[in-house]
Amino acid sequence: MGIALQTSPFFQVLEYLAIFFCGLSGGLAAIRKNYDVLTIMITAWLTGLGGGIIRDLMLGAIPPAGVSDIGSIFTSFAAGILVALLHPEVDKLKWTMLIIDALSIGLFAVNGASKALMYNMSGITAVFLGTFTAIGGGTIRDMLLNDVPQIIRDRHWYIVPAIIGTIFTVFVWRLEQYKAISFQTEFVLDAGIVVLVVLLRLASVQFDIEVPGALQRNKT
Amino acid sequence: MGIALQTSPFFQVLEYLAIFFCGLSGGLAAIRKNYDVLTIMITAWLTGLGGGIIRDLMLGAIPPAGVSDIGSIFTSFAAGILVALLHPEVDKLKWTMLIIDALSIGLFAVNGASKALMYNMSGITAVFLGTFTAIGGGTIRDMLLNDVPQIIRDRHWYIVPAIIGTIFTVFVWRLEQYKAISFQTEFVLDAGIVVLVVLLRLASVQFDIEVPGALQRNKT
Amino acid sequence: MGIALQTSPFFQVLEYLAIFFCGLSGGLAAIRKNYDVLTIMITAWLTGLGGGIIRDLMLGAIPPAGVSDIGSIFTSFAAGILVALLHPEVDKLKWTMLIIDALSIGLFAVNGASKALMYNMSGITAVFLGTFTAIGGGTIRDMLLNDVPQIIRDRHWYIVPAIIGTIFTVFVWRLEQYKAISFQTEFVLDAGIVVLVVLLRLASVQFDIEVPGALQRNKT
Fold first, then answer.
1. Does any domain span residue B93?
2. Contact check, Cβ <8 Å, A88/C155
3. In chain C, what residues touch A71 (CB-CB under 8 Å)?
4. pLDDT (tens digit, 9 = 90+) per residue, C180-205?
5. Taking CA atoms, what residue in A is nearest to C147?
6. In Å, how far are A124, B49, C157 from B66, measured between CA atoms?
7. What is the CA radius of gyration of chain B?
8. What's the number of CA atoms in the CB half-sphere (13 Å) around residue A132?
9. Does residue C218 fall inside a structural domain?
10. Interchain CB distance below 8 Å, B57 and A58
11. Which of C38, C70, C85 sits opposite B159 (nearest CB)?
12. CA nearest to A213 within chain B
């Protein structure tokens, strides 16, 4: 799968799309608070690439892609510039943004878990690092802007689909590793995981499915 | 000592206890703010294992134990689940929690400094990394929940006992290294350091001993 | 250049000065909020050495200088102690602090970018890591104190001069590498870059030059 991610133009394009749309939503967070263009660029970059930086530091993949892969860096900056110019339009695309955001969670979850597995990490480490890739950038951005991070504020399913996506990714990777499925099947299944993550996220927002709180008991 | 930490069932049990009780106090912080179960699990994990992740990244111990050691991860999650179910009871255990919290500071200080020394770090680096292990998890948790971290809010001795504990740990390690004391003596002394850290912390709360502020001068 | 930074007593003294004055401004931030002496020391250390720790983690320079180089650590602590004793005087030195702060941005930008290039990083990675070194410490400090970081609050040029400084540093490094300029010339040019960064920062504050916001359009 990891190799598929690297070699398939389809996945490559989707990965840059994830960075790009993460960048849009990151830049928009800064615009809404009336910050300057530089802050917009920083938050676009951080949201698009911050999760991957955490993953790479924990993998020992030095230097992290977020400060060295020119394509990724320029993609996030392009998103920042675009949103600085076109923010009234972008701001109107509520559902579009929600879908795009969900898509980036799905793509990053599959991508992050796969990169960890390529580095010979265990399944549980891959689940952690895939989840960090999916939600890390937005979390650092919110900490920098002094907000409570979205993973905490948003009671809808946000981190749950990411975790489910990474678990499936590990499972599919193992199937391919033990030759139970072909490389092509893995490829298709990974794409399916991305779609599943998107649907879980959107369903949770649409039907108002929330993660429950701590157990409440009657005070007697 | 490091080897003692690894090989002695006594220290192993105590280490998991430290993670467990750190996890309880971390989860409780999320419950008090009415966050959902997932946030409770995240803060339990982060408080129990976040300090060790910082230590491991700075040591180059890749991947960090906090995303790869299954025993540690499950211990922190078990603490999160338990506190989500039993929080009214846990919340009542004020002094118990304070003791447990102090114990986890002491254990993590000795454990973190020892791991750094095992990686051939200098004494000063061991003091830093031991202290990070002891107070890092709670600090990241507070930053994530958008609070001023406890190491800053709490004017009682919190980080001071951790630093003292790491300094003694380095000292005892060097004694054993130069054969001035036996391995068994080191083992006992390390246990003593944990007790010392706990006593310092509790004495500071009980007798209201505070770290002084910056020098105040009469405005003339 | 990197070697110049290491070997030249001139640059060595300036680097410690940067840490020292960063430490002063960091400690002062804690004093203004009435935090205790320990918090003053932590923020002094974090402001002086936090940026370099981020740089070193991303370079794989393990352990980071901020937890292992005794000269750097003691310099930051000395700054913390000094500001705790003399804060009314330091607080009065508004322009002096501004100049010193600008100087530390310039020095850290050149120093951070050069260290990255010494580790065979690409130019773009050197720009990122040099900028992180210059602004990272203050940013972590502000996140810890639960403030919106200065890089975001300050609409004057703050991060811009740092980025410009790192770009010039990479350019000068490449010139020396391809023997277009001598080692001595590189040395002089690097000193010039530090001066340039300081002047850009001060000019931005003096003449109120701000980074523009996102494009505003007439609502029609």
1. yes
2. no
3. none
4. 788 788 888 888 898 899 898 888 88
5. A146
6. 11, 5, 39
7. 17
8. 23
9. no
10. yes
11. C38
12. B36
Q: What is the pLDDT along chain B (220 residues), one digit of tens a residue?
A: 444 445 566 666 767 878 888 888 888 888 888 888 888 898 999 999 998 899 999 998 889 988 998 999 999 999 999 988 887 776 676 777 788 788 888 988 988 898 888 888 999 999 999 999 988 888 888 888 877 787 777 777 788 889 999 999 999 989 888 887 887 888 888 888 988 998 988 888 877 777 777 666 654 4
Structure tokens at B4: 């003692």
In a domain, A28, yes or no: yes
Tokens found for residue A9:
């133009």
CB contact under 8 A, A215 and B68: no
- List, in order, residues 6 or more apart from C215 with CB less than 8 Å away: A84, A85, A87
Q: Is there a domain that residue C215 lies in? A: no
Note the ipTM here.
0.84
pLDDT tens-digit series, residues A84-103:
888 777 667 677 778 878 88
Cβ–Cβ gap C121/A63 under 8 Å: yes
Number of domains in chain B: 1
Range of the domain at C128: 2-206
User: Radius of gyration of chain C from Cα atoms?
Assistant: 17
| B83 interfaces chain A, CB cutoff of 8 Å | yes
- Nearby residues of B167 by Cβ (< 8 Å), 6 or more positions away: B127
- Report the residue from A59, A124, A160 with minimal CB separation from B62: A59
